[in-house]
Amino acid sequence: MGWTMALSLTEEHLDLAESVRGWAQRHCSPELVRAAADAPDSGSARYLQTLAPGLAEQGILGLHVPEADGGQGYGLPELAVAVEELGRALIPGAFLPTVLASAALIEAGAGGKLVAGLADGSKAGAVALTTGLTGRPGPDGSLVVDGQTGPVLGASLAELLVVAVQTGDGETWVAADTASLDIVAADSLDLTRPLARVRADGVMIPADRLLPGLRRGAVTSLAAALFGAEACGIADWAVHTAAEYAKIRHQFGRPIGQFQAVKHRCARMLIASEQAAAAVWDAARAQQAVPGHDPAGHDPAGHDPAGHDPAGSPNSADQEREFAASAAAVVALDAAVSCTHECIQTLGGIGYTWEHDAHLYYRRAMSLRALLGPAADWKKRIAGLAMAGISRPVRVDLPGGDAALRGQIRAELAEIAGLTGQDRAARLASGGWVVPHLSRPWGRGAGALEQVVIDQEMRAARLRAPVLAIGAWVVPALIQYGTQEQQERFLPPTLRADFLWCQLFSEPGAGSDLAGLSTRADRAEGGWKITGQKIWTSLAREAAWAICIARTDPAAPRHDGITYFLVDMHSPGVEVRPLRDITGEAMFNQVFLDEVFVPDDCVVGQVNGGWRVARTTLANERVSLSRSWTFGSGVPELLEAARAAGSPPLAEVGQLVAEGHALDLLGLRVTLKQLSGTEPGATGSVRKLLGMRHAQQVSELCWEMSAAAGALGGTGGPVGAGGPPGTGAGDLGGAHWARQVLLTRALTIGGGTTDIQLNIIGERILGLPRDPEPPAS
Fold it and tell me: Does the pLDDT at position 69 exceed 80?
């Protein structure tokens, strides 16, 4: 299915995920998991006797361990892929705490036998994320430890415990043998994995077991990445289980997945799962410190392909990994809890029974969330980093072998950069630089790699392609369906931005249900006469031309009998009336068409075949909207308002910062999928839903932070205009954010409403039953 193996992007990771999944299906069956839940001691024994040796034999326990220490020599990204797959299988026992322990030891620079024993399955490990241990100096550099930890995952199975000890000089991490400690078993919410508290009473930790190279931030960042990876597997299981059940469970004479309430619930689960995967994928990458590697992605020769300051990002690698880990902790752990919760709701009564496995996944998700620490703390953590100017750059790290291509593109663009005005615009248009992904001569026929290089090099050369606005949606339709004469007439001036286009699609009675349009086109000598009303038309007052769909055969089925026209907006019979929206402005228009004549040479595609052409336009619209249509309500504006607010609600700020980062990562993952030849699927719909609601939430929180000043204004002024300074949210002011709240209401309506987008995700990705066709009129 399209939503499986969420973390994997490359062929190597896909193969690894498939291999681990196959192993889990053979050795970690649902029956084994259930047996572990019903008899925890038996499950723990089974892990130590069979699962751990099997994991070691497959190399899974040592994926991230250096070869010198008996591992496979990969890293955290590969380990995260395996953790996700085994989380989907709900593997019992000590796998997760063991790989976290070995990752922490590697982080501390403590290799050798300690790590090798964890990688070969001969020992299990655990990490105490909460501790009450104190230490005092002992003989020969040792540490004498007393106290008790909080609940530790897998401590009762572990021979080795990585734990922090508070000393007079601060916090010191140690690797202690559990045989010297008192392990006190505790009831575990997760029935398949044991919890225990660890007590020490004058226990001496030898000097060679102290880990001075380890710090708490690094340990918690590793835990966030690995707990997050397992959370992704749990969320994926929940989405799959709920969707499959919704296809076969019938109520009221049809599958419950056909009911929008259920379909939308499953779609939102998928969205949460996808967002979690993006955040965890990046967190795993961020933990992978590579000496000499520039995480900002700069060219070794000093040329920055992304067009940024050659000095690079001011962030340290530690700050970046902490930022990425915090985003994963906020997004992924909550996604696992919410997805399993909604899975049980979708399953209904059967999901609430002890016999169904849903509660086992729910319990594990809740356990992960609790052990990693309160979500509010992680939200405040990433908010603090972001407000201090720390971020995690989201850039494409291109594969090797693009040097010759980059050099050629750079040379061509350097020549164009020497031009100005219309000469520059004309060269960009004629050279295919404006829409490089489209076929020649209008584009460059560029594949995914070349598109990325072109984008980077244009920014480096400080070149901006002409802004096509709605013309960017028109061009693909004309290239695919237009005649040669239409292409030669309209495409060059459109690509030069000599004039603007508008789109005459929506009608008062046909919005999301566009096929229900009533505008008609009647045959006339040499062409057609169009009569009807269009609404929500951007740029209608400025546009020279419009794309318009009208019904040419009223007797045909809904999606047939529609034709796609190019309309001269200065034609007799075209009347444009500004449409005042809730901000008090008139961004949109109504357009009335009274027997507007359109010649035959302005029909695109076949008569009565316009729906296919329109879908090409709509598809391009949705991709464009999902990328950047936020109306100035993004994370940078949020942080500006938060800094000005004095005492901002850090948890709420952190939630939006983490989600904004995940949104950027979703875009990056789409690009990387394209580079690897993987179909991105309906990611445009997923990103649009997340992006539009995110902009609304940013606006709402910034308005809330403006306090009483939020009662000011809310109408008038251009998009992005600042309000009076000193009104509670910086120079943007309360009036500005009141207006932004009103303005962003449009984002979940335009380009396909939220409800329609959820239907698309439910039906096209999850395969849920389509809505019943409306009755024939």
Answer: yes
Determine which one of 621, 652, 659, 704 is catalytic: 621
> 71 with 36: CB under 8 angstroms?
no
Q: With the CA atoms of 362, 367, 370 and 371 taken in that order, what torsion angle do they form, in degrees rounded to the nearest 10?
A: -150
Q: How far apart are the first and last CA of the chain?
A: 37
Residue 301: pLDDT above 50?
Answer: no
Q: How far is CA 546 from CA 199, 473, 578, in A?
A: 75, 11, 16
Q: How far apart are alpha carbons 692 and 102 in whole angstroms? A: 41
Between CA 666 and CA 671 the distance in angstroms is 9
With H, G, I as helix, E, B as strand and everything else as coil, classify residue 190.
coil
Whether residue 66 is preceded by a cis peptide bond, meaning omega within 30 degrees of 0, is no
In what helix (H) or strand (E) does residue 25 lie, and over which residues does it extend?
helix 11-27
- Per-residue confidence (pLDDT) for residue 297, from 0 to 100: 34
Q: What three-state secondary structure class fits 337?
A: helix
Helix (H) or strand (E) holding 71: none
Q: How far apart are CA 566 and CA 87, in angstroms?
A: 54
Residue type at 41 in one-letter notation: D
In order, the DSSP letters of 546-592 are: EEEEEES-TTS-TTSSEEEEEEETTSTTEEEEEE--TTSS-SEEEEE
Cross-strand partners of 548: 504, 565
Residues 342-370 have a mean pLDDT of 97
Query: Is 531:552 a contact under the CB 8 Å cutoff?
Result: no
* Helix (H) or strand (E) segment spanning residue 532: strand 527-534
Contact by Cβ (8 Å): 524, 492: no
CB atoms within 10 A of CB 680: 16
Total count of residues recorded for the chain: 777
Is 595 tagged catalytic? no
Rounded distance between C-alpha atoms, residue 193 and residue 197, angstroms? 14
Sequence-ordered list of residues with C-beta below 8 angstroms from that of 546, at least 6 positions apart, any chain = 501, 502, 503, 504, 537, 540, 566, 567, 569, 591
Looking at residue 585, its amino acid is: E
Dist. CA 72–CA 596, nearest whole Å: 71
pLDDT given at position 315: 64
Rounded to whole angstroms, the Cα distance separating 164 from 191 reads 27
More confident residue, 325 or 558: 325
Q: Look at residue 763 and give its three-state secondary structure.
A: helix
Q: How many angstroms separate the CA atoms of 104 and 162, rounded?
A: 8
Residue 718 has pLDDT above 60, yes or no: no
Span 470-514, pLDDT tens digits: 998 899 999 999 999 999 999 999 999 999 999 999 999 887 777
pLDDT tens figures, 743-759? 999 888 877 788 888 99
CB distance 7 to 13 below 8 Å = yes
For the purposes of burial, counting CB atoms within 10 Å of the CB of 764, is it exposed (0-12), middle (13-18) or buried (19 or more)? middle
Left, alpha or beta for 681 (phi > 0: left; psi -120 to 50: alpha)? left
**Other C-beta atoms within 10 Å of 567: how many?**
24
Angstrom distance (rounded) from CA 500 to CA 27: 62
Residue 669 host element (H or E): helix 650-675
If one compares 395 and 56, the residue with the highest pLDDT of the two is 56
